[in-house]
Fold this protein.
Amino acid sequence: MKINIHDAKTNFSKLLRRVASGEEITIAQSGVPVARLVPVDKEQSARKLGLGSGTLKIADDFDAPLPRKVLDSFYRKSAKKRV
């Protein structure tokens, strides 16, 4: 169903009842759709924590400084200078 903004404001409670029963409603301004009222999905059950426990290992030196050779590759400048 498509409805203009003025009618949507006037009949908001009625529109919400229709949406709650599964209908989708498009709200338009000067005939151009600007919003859509849709039913809320049923709440999903909470995800269980720790399902991936033990599948990822972080190295002890994860936050150690990078080797000079690697750092230099980030900051390398062109070998030839432009004139």
Notes: Residues 27 and 62 are 52 Å apart (CA to CA). The helical segments are 5-10, 12-20, 68-75. The first helix runs from residue 5 to 10.
